[in-house]
Every structure is written in C-alpha cells, then in structure tokens.
Write a structure and sequence with these properties.
Layout (H helix, E strand, L loop, with lengths): L1 E10 L2 H23 L9 E7 L3 E4 L12 H6 L3 E4 L6 E4 L3 E7 L9 H18 L5 E3 L2 E6 L8 E11 L2 E9 L19 E2 L2 H5 L5 H16 L1 E3 L1
Parallel strand pairs: 1-2, 1-12, 3-4, 9-11
Antiparallel strand pairs: 2-6, 3-5, 6-10, 7-8, 8-9, 9-10
Helix pairs in contact: 3-5
C-alpha cells in the first residue's frame, strides 16, 4: 500500500494554495527526472491536501473567459478573486464551506491512466454521497459527480473536478459543495455547461452538514478507492 501524507490547510487564498501545490509537484518531478538520469535514488512523496478558499473563480486551460458573466469591476466590488489556471476543465467557483481536495500523487506508483484516476476521484465522492442517502452519478462526457443525470431538467452537479499531470504527478483535484453559497454559481456558466444546475449537500439534505464529518468520510473512502494509507 502506498503512503499518502495528509494535510489540512484550512482556509487559504487560492493563489498561495496553487503555489504550494506547484512546489510539491515540482519536488516530485525533479526527483523523477534525476532518477531517470541515474543521479538520485530518492523516492517521490504522495500528498492529499484539504482546504477551502475565500470566494474565487478559477478557469481551466480549455475554458472560455466569456463563461464569467460579470465584469472585472463587479468581481472586485464583490471581493471575488479570479485565476486562469493550468488545470483541465472550464470555469468553477471555490468558496467557504466547500471541501477542496488536492491529491498530489505519483501515478506511476498506482497506474498510468488519467481517465482511471478521474473515475477513482469520482468514486470517492460517490461513496461519500451514498453515506448521506444520495445517489452520486457520472455524466457521460462530463467530469465530476452529479445527481439525477437521467433527467436533463433535474441534473445537477455537486462536485467539480479538474486536474493537471506532469511526469505522471498530479495536482489540482476536486471541489465538493458542502454548505456552499450557491448564489456565486449564478454569475458564471459552471464548468461551461449552460443547461445544468449546481447543488450542495446542504441543499439536497435541507440542513447544515458537519464539514468535519464530510472530511472524515472523504479520507476514509480515498484510502479505500486508492488502496493507500493516509499518514
């Protein structure tokens, strides 16, 4: 079983969290590069990071800026940050009471298959939702976890995902809406999909959800799905 170092960064500004992820990824890619040259025998380190961000919109490298529906002046007035990023996917929102997870894994120690990696992240969230009596689902051609995918008018996303991979080391990850203020999603085209809604655990269950309990469940199922040990 692979060991994965767990950290909870609490609430952290998005740019700083991005920088810290890049540092961890780069440390691993340097080790892999040196090892391939016979310079080093050091081992890469896996990480799973939890955090939440002050209100921020982040745009994936294949996304469209037009999916932000308010001006930069309005963003500033509302104290919402904005970052074009190097992850996959389109536009999404991060904010308080949303569980953001950043796995930094050397997939060569698991499997070299990005599709399988994303399906595994989705499976973690699907299992967590099951504990709350919700049926999390995948939507064909759309990364993340959804509810009611068989009913287009009711389909809604509860967890967004977008990743980057360099030398088979991952960064970025998932954002699960727990008690998230969903009004922020009305100012963007979430994930670039105009005809589907966004939801949260709080909205679906009709009550405030214990965020710490959600973290415990995500950690449990992450270990189960990835067959690893969090340390």
């Amino acid at each position: 079983m692979q060991e994965v170092k767990f950290s909870d960064w609490g609430q952290i500004e998005y740019g700083l969290a991005w920088q810290k992820q890049e540092e961890l990824l780069n440390a691993n890619t340097v080790i892999k590069s040196n090892r391939s040259k016979g310079i080093s025998a050091d081992e890469t380190t896996h990480h799973l990071i939890f955090c939440e961000h002050p209100p921020v919109y982040t745009l994936g490298k294949s996304g469209k800026e037009s999916h932000v529906l308010i001006t930069k002046e309005e963003l500033s007035k509302r104290n919402i940050s904005y970052y074009p990023t190097n992850r996959g996917g389109d536009i999404t929102f991060h904010g308080p009471e949303q569980l953001v997870g950043y796995p930094i894994l050397d997939l060569e120690k698991f499997y070299t298959d990005i599709g399988r990696y994303l399906r595994s992240l989705e499976e973690v969230i699907i299992l967590v939702l099951g504990d709350y009596g919700l049926k999390g689902e995948r939507s064909k051609g759309e990364t993340g976890v959804w509810l009611d995918t068989e009913h287009p008018l009711k389909a809604r996303k509860i967890c967004a995902m977008g990743v980057r991979c360099s030398r088979w080391v991952t960064m970025h990850g998932f954002a699960l809406n727990v008690n998230t203020d969903l009004n922020y999603f009305s100012m963007i085209v979430p994930c670039g999909i105009p005809d589907k809604q966004v939801t949260s655990l709080q909205k679906e269950l009709g009550c405030i959800v214990d965020s710490e309990e959600v973290k415990i469940k995500v950690k449990h199922y992450f270990q189960k799905v990835f067959e690893c040990i969090l340390t």
